[in-house]
Amino acid sequence: MLGGIALYAAFPPLDWWLCSPLGIALIVLSLYGTRPRRAAWLGYLMAAVFLFPTLAWVRTIGDDVWLMLVGTESVFYAAMAALAALVFRLRAWPLWFAGLWVLMEWARGLVPIGGFPWARVAFSQSESLFTEYAALGGAPLVSFAVTLCGALLAQAVLAGSAPVRAREGVWASAGSRAGAARSAVWLTRSAVWLRGAPVAMALAVPLLTLAIPRPGDEGRTVNIGIVQGNVPGRGMGFMGDEPAVVLKNHANETKRLAQAVREGKLPKPDLVVLPENSTDIDPYRDAYASQIIQDSVTDVGVPTLIGAVVAIGDEHRATRSLVWDPVTGPGAYYDKQHLVPFGEYTPFKEIVLALWERANLVGRQSVAGDRPGDLRMGPVTVGAVNCYEVAYDDTVRRTVRAGGTPLVMQANNATYALSNLPPQQLAMYKLRAVEHNRAVVAAATTGISASIGPDGKVSWRTRELVADMNVVTVPVRTEETIATRVGAVPEWALMMMGAAAAGVAAWRGRRRGDRMRND
C-alpha cells in the first residue's frame, strides 16, 4: 500500500517526482518472493491505492464511474505483478521488471474502448532528472528508466539481507575465532558489494540524462495570443443556462487582447489560439455565432484557432480545431482523433443508454478525425492537439512529423476545474515539449493555459476559473529528436524484452516442476 501512496505523491498536484522510484521500490519489495496468484492480488491492491486518488477528478462525473475506471485499470497492474513474480527468479530481473511495466502501460493505453493512458509513470516526471529520456525514447523510455531505478533500489535492499543469513551459517560452522573473524570480514565486503552495485546503478540511471545532448535554438520565434474565456457554471453544467455565453466570453476576451495590443500593452500576435469548445454553438449552422466569431477575429486582425463542436450530418458531430481568417472566415481544420468515451461518444450505446440516464448527456455521437493536426496559420504551421489526446504518444508524434511547430494544445477542462486533472495535463504538455523539441502553447476554457518552452519550462500560465489572455513569444523549432524519428521502436523493444523474460521464467518453472515430479 505504501508503494501506491508514494506513486500518487509523485503526480501533480503534489509533484514529488522522487516518490516514483521510491514507490516502485516498495512495490517490488512487496511482490518479491511471492507466487503469481498472490502477486496479482497485491498488484491489484497497490494499483487501487495509487489510482483512486490520482484519478479523483473522475468523481465529477460520478463515483460509480470513478470506481469502475479504477477497478478496470487495476486489472492491468495485477497481470503485470503476476508476471513479475516469475521474472524475479531470473538474473538481471530489474531490467525485465521494468520492461513488463512498459508493457502494462502500453496495454492500458490500448484497451478497452481505445485505452486510458493517463497516470503513466512518465507523466510524473515532467521536471525531473528522468525527463530528458523523453527525447530519446518518448514517454515509454521515461517510465522504463524510473521503474528500473526503483527496482535497483529494491534489489539493493534484498541483496543486503542475503549476507546476513549467510554470516549466521558461517559463524555457526567456523572452527575457531580466527576463522569466524575472516568469514565476517569476507561477508561484510560481500554485503557492501551486493548493496553498493545496485545503488550505484540506480543513481546512474537518472544521472546519465545529463549527458544527453539537446537541440539548440534555431533563431526563429512567433508571437501567439492565448485566450482563456472562462465559463459560467461548474461540473457537468459548466455552460450555464444563458445561450452562447461560452462563445461570448471568449470573443470578449479576444477583443480585450486586441485592445491591449493597440494600446501597446502587448506585442502584436502572429496568430491567436482559443480553447477546445470555445464556442458552444456550431458556427457553420448558426449565423449569430459565426458573426460573433468573425467580429472578434476581425478585431484582433490575425488568423485565430477556434475550438468548436460542429454537426456532421443529423446524428453526429466532431470536436474541431478551426482556423478562422479575419478576411476569408473559416478555413482549414483538424478533427479530434482520440475521443473521450462516455464524454464524446457512447460505447455499447444501446446497453449503456438503457442502464445509465447520465449517458444521454453525450447527445450527438462524435466521429473521429483521420489526419494529423498540421494547420497553416500566418508564418507557421501549428500542430493542433485536442485535450485528451495529449496522453497518446502516436497522436502527438504524427502531428510533429507532419510539420507542426509549435504544438498547440486546446483543452476544455471546465468540468474538472480545481481538481487534479488540469495540473496533470500541464505535466503532460511539459513532457511532450521535451520529447519532440517543440514549444507548447496551451489554451483551456477555465485553465490551466500556459506557454512552455522546448525544454519543458513554463514561462507563463494562468490561474483557474478566471478570464485571462496574453501574447507569448515562443521559439520555432524544426529539428527532430531521436524519439520523434524512431517513434514506437524503443517501446516495442522494451515490451518484447519484458515479455520474453516472463516467457523464459515460465518455461524454466515448468521444467523445474517436471523434474520434481519425475524424482
UniProtKB/TrEMBL annotation:
How this chain sits in the membrane, per its record, is:
Multi-pass membrane protein
Stated EC number for the protein is 2.3.1.269
One Gene Ontology CC term in the entry: plasma membrane
Keyword Iron present in the record's keywords: the answer is: no
Residue intervals passing through the bilayer: 14-32, 39-59, 65-88, 95-113, 133-158, 192-212
Sorted alphabetically, which Gene3D superfamilies does this protein's record hold?
Carbon-nitrogen hydrolase (3.60.110.10)
**What keywords were assigned to this record?**
Acyltransferase, Cell membrane, Lipoprotein, Membrane, Transferase, Transmembrane, Transmembrane helix
User: What GO terms in the biological process aspect are recorded for it?
Assistant: lipoprotein biosynthetic process
Task: Provide any one GO MF term from the record.
Answer: N-acyltransferase activity
What subcellular compartments does it reside in? Cell membrane
Name the top EC class: transferase
The pathway this protein participates in, as annotated, is:
Protein modification; lipoprotein biosynthesis (N-acyl transfer)
Q: Which PANTHER family match?
A: APOLIPOPROTEIN N-ACYLTRANSFERASE
Entry's family note? Belongs to the CN hydrolase family. Apolipoprotein N-acyltransferase subfamily.
Query: What task does this protein carry out?
Result: Catalyzes the phospholipid dependent N-acylation of the N-terminal cysteine of apolipoprotein, the last step in lipoprotein maturation.
Name listed for the protein in its UniProt record: Apolipoprotein N-acyltransferase
Say which species the protein is native to. Nonomuraea phyllanthi
The taxonomy runs: Bacteria, Bacillati, Actinomycetota, Actinomycetes, Streptosporangiales
Gene designation per UniProt? lnt
